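ok so I'm stuck.
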Amino acid sequence: MVDTALYQALGIPMDASADDIKRAYRKIARKYHPDVNPGPEADAKFKAASAAYDVLRDPEKRAAYDRYGADWDQPRPEGGPTGNTRWRGGFAFDEGDVNADAFRDFFGTAFSERAMRPDQHAAVTITLEDAIAGATRSLTLQSPQIDETGRMTLQTRHIDLSIPKGVLPGQQLRLAGQGGGGADLLIEVSFAPHPVYRVEGRDLYVTLPVTPWEAALGGKVPMPTPAGPVDLTVPANARQGQKLRLQGRGMPTAVPGDLYAVLQIVNPPQLSDAARDLYRQLARTDTFNPRSKLGV
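replied:
not stuck anymore, here's the structure
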C-alpha cells in the first residue's frame, strides 16, 4: 500500500509540484505556528507539517519516500534496488544497467545534467535589521548524501551567506555550485518576529499609540522608523486604526516600500483629579453621541 502520510500532513496530492508543496506548508505554518496559535493540537499539526515539508521539498528524499514510504531513509534490503542504486533529482539509477551516458543520450545533455544535480534547499531566519542594512551570516548546513549501499547520511558544511540589502521574506538566495555534488543551493529567507514592525511585502507597519486628546486635536507625535525617530503629523479627529503613510520608509527594495503607522487610541491608566474634572466638563458641554445610529 502506498504511504501518503506526509502528503496528508500538508493536505496535498502525491503529484503536487514543488510550488504546491511550499504553498501548502506556508499556509499551515501561518495558521499553526506556536507564536500564532499556541496549544498542543496546533503544535502537533505544525510539527507534522514541518516534518513532511523537510522530506517532500527535497527531490531525493521525496523520491525515496515515494518508493519506500516511512522506511525511505533506511538501508535497502537485497532484492530491492541494488547496492549500487543512486538517487539523483528524484531518479533512481542502478549503475549496473543505467549509466549517466545512457541517460544523457536519451534525454539530452542539458536536461540530464540538471536532473542529476537538482537544486538543494535550505532556510535561514534573519532579523529585520539584517534585511534592511544587509549582513553576512555563517551557516552550518547538513546535506543528505546516499552512499554506495543506499543508506542516507548527513554531510556537515559551513558556508558564509551574504544577505543583500532589501531582501524580503520568502525570497530565495541562490548560491551557485554550493549544494552537494556541485548543485546550486537555494536558501529561503524568513524573518524573526520583530517587537515593533510588521512586514507585509515590501511595506512595514507599526502600531502607534496616541492619547485621546492627540487623536481629537491632532498634532505632531514621535514615532519610530528603521532610520530613527521622526515626528508624525496626526490629523485632527483621527480614528482608531487609521493608517498614516510615510512614503519610501519601508523595505529598501528596488522600489522602496512604505511605512504605515496604525493609530491606537489609548486611555491613560489613571486620571488625576484635574483631568477628571476636564472630562466631566466635556461631558456636560459636548453633545456628541457615538450611539446615535443605534437609536439610543
